[in-house]
Amino acid sequence: MGKFKQVFNWLEYVFLMGSKFGLFAMMLLVSGDAIGRYFFGKPIVGTYEIVEMYLMVVTIFLSMSYVMKIGGHIRLDVVFDKLPKTLQKRLNFFYYFLTAIWMSFIGYYGFQTTHEAWVENLTESGVVSFPMWLSYIWVPIGAFLLCIRLLIMCVNTLGPKSELKGE
Amino acid sequence: GDSSTSSEAENKDTIKLKVADSFPTTNLLSSEGIVYFMDQVEKHTDGKVEFEYYPAEQMGKAGDFLDLIQTGTIDIGYTSYATDKLPLSEVPTLPGAYSTSQEGTQIFWKLMEDMLIEEEYKPNDIQPLWAVPIPQYQIATKNKKVENLEDVQGLKMRATGTMEYALDELGASPTFMAAPEAYTALERGTVDGVVFPFTSFKPYQIQEIVNYSTGNVRLGSFNVIYSIDSKVYQNLPNDVKGSIDKASQETMDHLSKVLDEKSKKLREEFSKQMKITDLSEEELKKWDEGLEPVWDRWAKDLEKRGIPAQKAVEKYNQFKDEVNK
Amino acid sequence: MSIIIPLLLLALLLIFGMPVAFAIGISGSVGLILAGGWEGFTGILLTAPYASVKSFLLSAIPMFILMASFMTVSGVMKDLISAAYKWLGKLPGGLGIASVFAGAVLGAVSGSSQASAATMASSVAPEMKKYKHKTPFILGVVSISGTLAVMIPPSIVLILYGILTETSVGALLISGIIPGLLTALGYIVVIFIWVKINPDIAPKISMNPTTKEKIKSLSSVWPMLIIITAVLGGIYSGIITATEAGAVGALITFLVILFMGRFTLAKINQALNDAIKASTMILTIIIGAHIFGYYLTMTQITQKLVMFAEGLEVSKYVILLIIMIVYLILGLFMDQMAILILTLPLTFPIIMSLGFNPIWFGIIVAKTAEIGLVTPPLGMNVYVASGASGLKTSEGFRGVKWFVLMDLLVLSILVLFPILSTWLPSQIK
Ligand code: NA
Ligand code: NA
Q: Which GO cellular component terms are attached (chain C) (predicted)?
């Protein structure tokens, strides 16, 4: 389990870097497009599609698991904080497990969509053609990462020194 | 969709079909298109078929409806934006493919029956119900009057779909932005103009903000298509199928006619608010020639993926000659 | 059953502390299965998570948040607040009032209320905390100031209203100015009274800064001035669209801070981390809210509610009142955009047939949308503000309640005096 967690942490970190890259690239690309359009009459072709299809999807989906880990997915705390610790643990186990199942559906359907786009070579065409699989693939990756993170957190709630939010 | 509530259980013959698209019901393409279609079907079947209509992206975004049909979430959906899986249905949107919506509708439906149903609808487990290519897009500008090809050079234009190729060929800068942003972008000069058909000006209030528009260029257009789940269609009783087919044909005739007439009327109305310029025949010819490469670019991109786009173009032109003979 | 169970489930899961995004998404999914069968569930789960995120318009949210994170991490925001405190610290709730102004300025930059709330939460909130302001006050002010983006142009809500109803977008945007300013004024009044009654929530400045100190503090304000001028100037001169403003603002902020020598790699990394945390949290909630919205669509409950209102044989003002109450109730549970898309095709024709003014109704709808953004259980701005500032949601909802009362008062004024909404556009036409 320890070794597995180590590898998974590393994997999650790598994808988080991807997410940060997506965010920074979005800033540069959208600005570059606006500057090019206004000052040189030459927008950057494909900005709209690259932001929509790739950077947004990469930024959000690849970091879902990390945000879960650091307790970033907000919750209503008013009742929860007043509950006894053992009940809090049980509730958390239930929430994480339920969400893991739900996420596995999203991951599974996301995988199907990606696979189909890959096999059929689907593209969003325009002056530049953009492959669709490269847009869809971040959904199953992100969903399954979060799935594993949630299962790890489930196991943590069972342990003696478990923490409540995140790791 | 086979959900039926208790009140309908008494009337067991009732067939319920779920329909979804992305147009607000105030849009002409909805009220004279799918709404008209549903009314006709209900009329022809004496209320045997009932529709549950989810307009205005209530069930998904513009690109989602093919997936929603395929998964059985809905039965009938707007499939115009599934161009990744139904690319050949874009043929009539290429520049100069037709002059009026009625002409375009006739030509395209022939192509649909001859080739596209087999080629791209059956493999996706759907059946096209009806399709209406809408009136040709015009260049509407705020400050610059467009009278010839030189005027288009370097214009920053908001555009979508195959129009992007057309503007690129003509030397303009096609710019992408969400349609709701077009108004503000024009107002502040982020773009010099937009490419819209007259029938789509009002939903985005384009007539309020532009001062010039072309009246007769044929930059290309958009194809409104609705499809039904093949399995759902096959399982319908024969008389219902017949009614649906009949209503489909009626919708194509009705909507294309309404669009052509409305386009003329709107043009008149808008001419009070802006200067609308018709290009001379000579100038139009130059544009058509300038836009010729768009067809090749479009076809080549698809051929690379093994899609018989060249053949679709040839057939389209053949049917065009037939319709116009 | 298919209506009660998912709503009940949502309420329970939220109250008992399940992460909001998943509570909404999962109860929506249960609803989809009940209302649309297994096919309904698979179809929406296949399309909605991807399609909700794949949006150029929504890219404004992470971009504005990134801009705010750069300001916070580099300390530029700290300098600004410190200067504001020196100038306004004697005023009851001085920093709160400054925040309302900041919210109005951000509202003029951005069309998105969530982007605006998140920007303030990750920049202004931590600083107010340092000056010993109480959490409900901070979160209340930040969440509510974010809603100003709905009314002050540009406004995504009003543009969407214009498109759905084919009402003049230009006139709508202009008509939002007076109600927007009136709302801001209302918030300032609330802050003033609240601090008068309970001075502890927003302590006054203890020292007495000299005029010289005050003037000196302004020297640290210039980076902020450059950034705001550049972004506002960029938008209003048409160089950039409101959606692009976030990205350009973030880049300008990045460059200004780099130029000031205030960045280290670690700080840039920290800013990216903070921005991702807030953005992903918000977008995940948006995914859940979309799924829940599709479920509500399938039950056709909104149609039923509106039909009910339409069928009543009462005065037109009673019907208007019922429609507004329906909007306020839907606002408790749903995403504001989803509400407009679901209901306007139904309510707008009714309102027109009753002879009401379309621009004015747009403002009324936008105002109810503003209120929905801060009311529990689904109060997007409060989640955004709490999440981005790392403070507690419960204190957030506690903090906005006085502002919501003021909002209801402003809403009543707007309903009773349509001229507040219709006068300005009529002057410009
Ligand atoms: Na705004
Ligand atoms: Na709410």
A: plasma membrane
Nearest listed ligand to the Cα of residue C172: 1
CB count within 10 Å of CB C409 equals 13
Angstrom distance (rounded) from CA A89 to CA C161: 45
* pLDDT of residue C429 exceeding 60: no
Whether the predicted interface score ipTM is above 0.85 = yes
**Per-residue pLDDT, C384:** 86
Contact A121 B87 (CB under 8 A): no
Does the distance separating the beta carbons of B177 and A126 come in below 8 Å?
no
Residue C340, domain member (yes or no): yes
CA-CA-CA-CA torsion sign (B33, B195, C175, C181): positive
C35 lies in a domain? Answer: no
Q: Encode burial over B140-154: b for 16+ CB neighbours within 10 A, e otherwise.
A: bbbeeebeeeebbee
Torsions phi, psi for B52 (to 5 deg) = -110, 115
CB burial of residue B106 (10 Å; 0-12, 13-18, 19+): buried
Dihedral Cα B259, B54, C166, B173, nearest 10 deg: -70
Residues in chain A within 8 Å Cβ distance of C276: 16, 19-20, 23, 59, 63, 66-67
What pLDDT sits at residue A161?
59
Q: Tell me: the pLDDT tens digits for C2-36?
A: 788 998 999 899 889 999 899 999 999 999 999 99
Beta partners for residue B15, in sequence order: B49
Which residue has tokens 């001859």? B114
| Chain C residues 202-241 within an 8 A CB cutoff of chain A | 234, 239-241
Q: Per-residue pLDDT tens for A82-114?
A: 999 999 999 999 999 999 999 999 999 999 999
Query: Is the pLDDT assigned to residue A159 strictly greater than 70?
Result: yes
Beta-bridge partners for B50: B16
Report the alpha-carbon distance of residue C253 to residue C223 in Å, rounded. Answer: 8
Verify whether the Cβ–Cβ distance A37 to B175 is below 8 Å.
Answer: yes
* Residue B3 reports pLDDT greater than 50: no
Spatial separation of the C-alpha atoms in residues C239 and C262, rounded to whole Å = 28
DSSP B254-273: HHHHHHHHHHHHHHHHHTTT
- Residue C11 inside a domain? The answer is no
* pLDDT of B5 above 60: no
Percent of chain A with pLDDT over 70: 95
The Cβ of residue A99 has, within 10 Å, a number of other Cβ atoms equal to 25
pLDDT tens profile C262-315: 889 999 999 999 999 989 998 998 899 889 889 988 988 777 777 777 777 888
Higher per-residue pLDDT: C208 or C148:
C148
For residue C9, report the phi and psi dihedrals to the nearest 5 degrees. -60, -45
Residue of B nearest to C295 (CA): B59
- Which chain A residues are within 8 Å of C251, Cβ to Cβ? 27-28, 31
pLDDT, tens digit, 9 for 90 and up, residues B245-274: 999 999 999 999 999 999 999 999 999 999
Between strands B212-214 and B275-277, the pairing is: parallel
- The whole-angstrom separation of Cα C278 and Cα C261 is 26
Interchain pair B60, C51: CB under 8 A: yes
Distance CA B173, CA B154 (A): 6
Rounded average pLDDT over C393-409? 94
How far is C273 from C282, CA to CA, in rounded Å? Answer: 14
Mean pLDDT, residues C51-69 taken together: 89
B58 close to C335: Cβ distance less than 8 angstroms: no
Backbone phi, then psi, for C329, in 5-degree steps? -70, -45
* Domains contained in chain C, number: 1
Distance of CA C336 from the midpoint of ligand 2 (Å)? 8
Q: Which domain holds residue C263?
A: 56-427
Q: Is residue C47 part of a domain?
A: no
Query: Which residues partner with B78 through β-bridges?
Result: B226
